[in-house]
Amino acid sequence: MSSFKYSIFFIVLFCGSQTNNVNSSSQKSENPLGIHSQDGWKNSLPIKYTISIEMTDTQHQYLKNAMQSWEKAVAKKLFEFEGTDPHKGIDFSDLYEPLKMGLNGHFFDMTWAKSTGKPNSVLATTVWENDPNMTQAILHSSIRYNQEYYIFGDATKDQSQDKKTIVDMQSLCTHELGHFLGLSHVPSTSDSSSIMNPTLKIGEGNTNRFMSSGDVDRVRSIYGVGDSTQSQEVIK
Ligand SMILES: [Zn+2]
After folding, report:
1. Which ranges of the chain have pLDDT less than 50?
2. pLDDT at residue 1, rounded to an integer
3. How far away, in angstroms, is 142 Cα from ligand 1 center?
4. pLDDT of res. 75
């Protein structure tokens, strides 16, 4: 039993998302606010993704809930589950190795700082690689989760344990999938209810699972919108 209490609301940096593409820095200034890859994956939908063998069915469901929020926003199928991947975060030599292996995966890291080079306070990180022939299109992207310091579950039901703080996985995944799809951070001064604000309150009871109307507009500017939409459901 731990005597550690988590009554304080932590505000932690969501992620250290970044591209592995040298050309994209020159493109960056051309992108509107909140978008890092204007062409996204729109030439290769739905995006086939894998999950680590370490991810439980329950955790996969939280991830799928987050995917459905983005799919509702554009009224299109964006994601298709391809299966489990035998790799763990610890198997990769650096942050970008999943991209070099051509993986669009979700991996848990038990040696966070060593494997990713990121501070302990970072909950997760999304990395992506742009197509060198079309630098506004995404070729591969993977998400890595800091399992060394956090527990990924349902913050309305699950608890922090030992020295690991509970993080609401659906909230976190909705944000990280925004990066995965081509969105970048939006400062709270520009859109205070954006799911792409760079921080998240974590700990028991803290969730932020909904996107703003600005988020819906930004993702639609990449993917357009299908025939019908229930986007109101995903807007807070
Ligand atoms: Zn982020």
Report:
1. 1-10, 23-28, 229
2. 37
3. 13
4. 95
3-state secondary structure 185-201: CCCCCCCCCCCCCCEEE
Please report the beta strands in the chain, taking only residues with DSSP state E, as ranges in sequence order.
10-13, 18-19, 47-52, 79-85, 105-109, 124-131, 134-146, 150-153, 165-168, 199-202
- C-alpha 43 – ligand 1 centre gap (Å): 24
Backbone angles phi, psi at 18, to 5 degrees: -160, 160
The CA 221 to ligand 1 mean position distance, Å, reads 19
Best CA proximity match to 199, nearest among 208, 89, 190, 160: 208
Span 31-74, pLDDT tens digits: 889 999 999 998 899 999 999 999 999 999 999 999 999 999 99
CA of 178 to the centre of ligand 1 (A): 8
Residue 32: burial class (beta carbons within 10 Å; 0-12, 13-18, 19+): exposed
Give the chain's domains with CATH numbers. 14-227 (3.40.390.10)
Distance 198 CA to ligand 1 centre (A): 5
